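Think of the structure tokens as a kind of shorthand, similar to the way a musician reads notation: each symbol stands for something richer, in this case the local conformation of the backbone. In the example below we present two proteins back to back. Begin with the first one, reading the sequence and then the tokens, and try to describe in your own words what changes along the chain.
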Amino acid sequence: MKKIAFIDLFIDEWHSNHYPAWFAQAARAKDFEIACAWEEHSFPGRRTLEQWCADMQIAPAPSLREAVDCCDCICVLAPANPEAHARLAEYALSTGKPVYIDKPFAPSRKEAERLFALAGKYRTPLMSSSALRFADELIRGDVQAAMPEILTTTGGGRSFREYAIHQFEMIVSVLGTEMENLRFSGDAETAVVILEYSGGRRAVLSYKSSYPFSLTAASRGKAFVFPELHHYFENLTESILDFFATGKSVVPQEETLAVADLLERSVLRIGNGPMQG
């Protein structure tokens, strides 16, 4: 059984609180265990590492290095704090052990390139993704196969800076990385981003905190309307364990870099608000 380490800025947060149950329900569950966890510091008013580990029946690691050394694969979490990912992941990326880094992967394209370069230097398998890429409606592949001329997404969350990645990930997974132009409208509260591709193809991202995640797409021959998206976290968890088992990510590196670039450019224009824990 392979051992997984959780590394987090502060461990008592939504993703770390839910991943153990999702991992336990995955097809490869019998092949993995979450063996230990480590946090850089506790979040005020939430459980300490010791309290969280006692509740989850997971061993607390005395240091980041010991968490990495005692395990076969590593989850670097901190989903609300991508600026912390480099320092939390740096040692793990030097070990050759598969590393999953939660979304947003990095706060800039330059930082994202640096992380991939470090992983490449040590031949460390590296994966990152928004869960929305793994919605049932997208992993079937029907939308991609239709080669849509226009794609529209909606989505919310507590801040554009933290949650816009979900829409960018969906768009890039369908239309690819070769954007020719970006146009922006609105602000951090209500934002629209238009992505223009070759051949007149377009994607429109609409953000407001109360919006549900949705997707519509149209080509000359077909139209897809998905007012809701389903099972993305469960499907992401399956993909993470497949990655840990094989060392091969289904998310192309160039798409992760493109998403980091899109998010950085958009935040600078319309979403430059602080993330929160």
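Once you have a description of the first chain, move to the second and do the same.
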Amino acid sequence: MRMIDENLHRLQTYRAACMDLPQQIGREEIINKDFLIATENTLDMYYAPHNEYINEHARIVIVGITPGWTQTKMAFQVARNAFMAGDSLSEVSKKAKAAARFSGTMRRNLIAMLDACGLQHLLGMSSSERLFTDEEQLLHTTSCIKYPVFRHGKNYNGHTPQVNRSPLLRKYAYHVFPKELAEIEAPYLLIPLGNAVSLTIRQLMEEGKLPNADCLFGFPHPSGANGHRMKQLETMRPELARQIASFRM
């Protein structure tokens, strides 16, 4: 794993603001002008430290639409404590990434859904949970839009507006995101979470911008807000299992 120079510089820019955060972080400490990156109509984009780290040796890449509040808060809490402990920029970002990626109930849902489709068998593991622990060298997690986006203060869901109808979102999804994945060296299994991410990935693949990716299309979003995820998974599971089994590690 490593950080490219641009990411290292960006994290350094926010170092002082991270260290000034209180031990118990609330929305008002993060959702403010100190971390605001851009505003477009009803959308606000804020900085978060966990998607600066890239695992260039990953074989499994899991992609969400954008970090939600739960991930964002966790990333800042870990980054703040790591900075206070004197950790390097690389170590801060690595710790924030490990703690924040699909944190909370979403991670538990995601692991259960991956196991239901047989990813653990492809990897020779008892459970896909090990991707988040002792086999994390195989995993890279990220978002099409790498920084948190909120619409009217709520997590952006990928649909209102659609990614390709927003210049801000389009910039990150169609330019910043493929540049990040270009850092991954070997062929990898790309798992987009939900329809909004899948639509973006399909367009990028059609444009030849993800040449090393073998994509698992049809995987439902594991968020608890997706109340139909298990029904969707049951419908798609045979095809998802077939795609996973066909991937060559």
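Compare your description with these statements about the second chain. The first helix runs from residue 5 to 13.
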